[in-house]
Amino acid sequence: MTDRWKLPAxxxxxxxxxxxSLQDALVRESVSEPAALIDGIQGAPDASEFMAQLRYxxxxxxxxxxxxxxNPAHLIALVSDxxxxxxxxxxxxxxxxxxxxxxxxxxxxxxxxxxxxxxxVRIIWRDFTRxxxxxxxxxxxxxxxxxxxxxxLNWHYSALTERFGEPVGxxxxxxxxxxxxxxxxxxxxxxxxxxxxDLIFSYPEAxxxxxxxxxxxxxxxxxxxxQKLIQSLDTNSADGFVFRVDMRLRPHGQSGAxxxxxxxxxxxxxxxxxxxxxxxxxxxxxxxxxxxxxxxCAELMQLLAPFTYRQYVDFSVIESLRAMKGLINRQxxxxxxxxxxxxxxxxxxxxxxxxxxxxxxxxxxxxxxxERQVCKLLPLLEQExxxxxxxxxxxxxxxxxxxxxxxxxxxxxxxxxxxxPTDELDRLRxxxxxxxxxxxxxxxxxxxxxxxxxxxxxxxxxDPDAEHDVDSxxxxxxxxxWEVSDSDQQALEVLTExxxxxxxxxxxxxxxxxxxxxxxxxxASSRTRLDAFMPRLLHALDQAPEIEAAEGLKRVLxxxxxxxxxxxxxxxxxxxxxxxxxxxRLSAASPWIADELAAHPILLDELLTPESLYAPPGKxxxxxxxxxxxxxxxxDDLEGHMESLRYFRSAHALRVxxxxxxxxxxxxxxxDYLTYIAEVILEHVLALAWENMVARxxxxxxxxxSEEREPNLIIVGYGKLGGIELGHGSDLDLVFIHDxxxxxxxxxxxxxxNQTFYTRLCQRIIHIITTQMPSGKLYEVDMRLRPxxxxxxxxxxxxxxxxxxxxxxxxxxxxxxxxxxxxAGDPALAGRFEKVRExxxxxxxxxxxxxxxxxxxxxxxxxxxxxxxxxEQLFHLKQDAGGIVDIEFMVQYAVLAWAQKAPKLTxxxxxxxxxxxxxxxxxxxxxxxxxxxxAYKAYRSTGHRLALQRQxxxxxxxxxxxxxxxxxxxxxxxxxxxPDQA
Length: 982
What we know:
This protein is mainly alpha-helical. It is 59% helix and 6% strand. Strands 2, 3, 5, 6 and 7 form a five-stranded mixed beta sheet that branches. Strands 8, 9, 10, 11 and 12 form a five-stranded mixed beta sheet that branches. α34 (754-770) links the parallel β9 and β10. The longest helix has 31 residues, at 134-164.
């Protein structure tokens, strides 16, 4: 026998009395002594260990003692099988069979109670002796409840259909099932030792039963069914009860209908659902249904998801949780519930609030957070950096301790209470169950956990103003500026004292906002949020040295108008002053960023963590993030993927822009990251389109009859994408190339030839990228660089591409090929493409003819696209003489003219590395290369800056880039015209 079962003297005496009573009861069952029960039982402990555990459990649980005294057969049956091992699926299945075999309701109800009592003896025994972990205990209790609800439901359904027929939908004509939603701890599979069960009943469709003698409406039928189910579970008879049933979480609570159909459920939650009902719905789970109702369960959960989880980052729940916790605290104080380990300070509810807060804020976007179980969510929240390092671990340890304490309290008398005992013997009993020798050492450990829980809870729901030292007097002053009445004098004084210039302009801008249609049409709750937001915005502008405050306000106000109808975004900024500061800072730095945030407020999520905002991830990290973004989406959810892709692109483009305007990233890295974003998106778009096409047509087949299980296709990037030089707002120049057997066809039921398959695949790719959705497009796509341009086939074979390049392509098309690069698709095909490209670029060319063609094309572009008014002294960074295109054309000419003798020139597709290679192979001097690279970087950096300022890439003034333009023009003269051409 281990010391674990040694009892203090007061409990030892109680245990002896309990054991004596049990022995008398066992004698009536012809068992001479308890130790005899384990003879020959496989897996049982030895006799002394078993008797020690028995005394321990009897001393610690009055419920177990009374149950076994009334029905000692429970102990005999459990020792024979079940007491010394975990619950299995076979146990559950056997229980289901015993319930289904009941011949009448009386037998059903008695069987439910006897099975429940026996199961509770087993579960409490294993929990108190720590043979089962806390999570194992809650899982077994939840599985027991699921099985009993399911068994009772289907028994009563069969009985009712014999009298009234089956309930049939009036629209579908299909038999209608009842779905039972388990809420709270049952829904999360976290049921405690003496939980009640919170249930909601619903069915898909109105109609009536098809009985021969008497019919009922579906509503009447399912109300009767629900009443019968509750009666079988909740009624307290001589055999006890099964589960206390609480139906108050249903729509309209106790005053609402016992059962509602799906339409009524959807209407209620979308129009009247309250915040606390959102919290409750997080844990909702179908726990039982009429046999055959699995699809109805899925339909109901899909219908409820938009109510529970918002598609945006929803910080409005913080204030609601603060209010709810305040209400609970007042209730605890009023009723003297400080000893409550669930509702008291640092109790179970505070841990649940922490978890639910992040679920409701971010569960709309982060599907991993829709997990129901606290024990699984706490490590995830820490892993994903929602909680600080160590916090998730500490909260999990506290949660397990508190739940074990709760089980110790409830397992004593099978009472639904979470209050710590006040009686000395009961306190000692709980301490022993928790593994402590006395009450003082137990409460010391308990208080340590509760202190940690309350500290973490307070951190999560902390008042943001207090956290960031925003004094109320300052906010009152800025509130007076926002809420000016008939006289603006006080507002002017505040602005003047704060040294704001253009105070009248500021007041005019604020008045325009107050009188704007979005603000005038705001609901009262949203207007309250706006009134909380505006003083904090003005305070943030006052604290921002980067920009004149009136101009900053002008840039932010379009965002405010854009979110007036979605005021949860205002709450996000009020609750996160850091995000408010980033909004002001970035809007001040770039109108492009301000416009992006106004168009896509969901991007505010990116402002919450500056450490990631100003550190864009590398390509592999982008791939990992993309995988996580779509991890829980099925391939057939095309719209979901398209929305996720658009958010992914916008979010990372914002990160890059933020890093650029604040100087955290140099020009070359900016283009790298923008290009990586596009490449990762194209990889996923290709995979998504492929899965869609294969599901519809089957796999393309090769000549030998085998399937092409992966796309035999590459996406080739041209232009800025191919040259790794994407800018903000760049479109994608793409060419699609396949290497399939065009004589073959797909092997699906709806078979098409391979050429048609790949054409439709590419059409789907373009559709995914360019379709205008609420969140915008991914990119504009330009396909004009494919063989034969707009008149050519959308996708061409590699052989046809090669033939075209050697026999029909114009010089400008070979120039474009200098920057051609596979960006997604089959690696083997990409390698073959590279060889074709190299062969095209290294072929011998007549240099005078090449120069003529390049110069002619350059002059045409300059005439059509350059700045035409010389009097204005404008300089178009890209198209005018001495600009970007001159450099690009010189690089392309150099590759086409000299790659035959220096094949290394074909290795890269970006201008900088090609120029460096020209120096390495001795075809350009170091001075020339340095001048071109320096000018090229300066032009592109300025172009990026202008784009972020929403300005054209045109500079005014004769002194703009004078030296660079002259150097580039001189080099153009030397290389392209030469002495013989001058």
